[in-house]
Amino acid sequence: MTRRQSKNQLIGGIAAHPIPKKIRVQKSTGKVPSSIFWDQDGILLIDYLPKGQTISAEYYSSLQVQFKDILNEKRRGKMTKGVLFLHDNAPAHRALVTQRKLSYLGFQCLDHPPYSPDLAPLDYHLFPGLKKQLKVRHFLSDA
User: Which DSSP category does 31 fall into?
Assistant: First the structure.
């Protein structure tokens, strides 16, 4: 019996599957969490989280204040009609700190279904444009 045959031992007259080969994977530069705020006219704010941090309710609430300032600056006159704020059900978005900040800023929060991948607005509005722009770009670092 050859070495290859010993790896593919016969089990009940049928050859077993060979041991899969391990493929060397090139190390990724890593993921960078980001928060993106946009309206029907385009992106208003993109915030990249520093490496090693997670998005907490306090951090997300501070982004809402930045978003309101940018909204006042870039979309003058739209604040008079009010802001309908839609975000998913991430823990930082559901936190009491976040809900209070939204109320304080005068934003009305729209309910997002608990689990609805078919209804994710990002899939239909934001990601197609980002995919087009980033399709052929390669980044060597987070910077």
Answer: -
pLDDT tens profile 93-113:
889 999 999 999 988 888 776
- Asked whether the beta carbons of 17 and 29 are under 8 A apart, the reply is no
Show the domain range for 109.
Answer: 56-134
Does residue 100 form part of some domain? yes
CATH number at residue 72: 3.30.420.10
Q: How far apart are CA 15 and CA 5, in angstroms?
A: 9
Q: Is the pTM of this model over 0.85?
A: no
Structure tokens of 100? Answer: 């209070």
d(CA 38, CA 84): 12
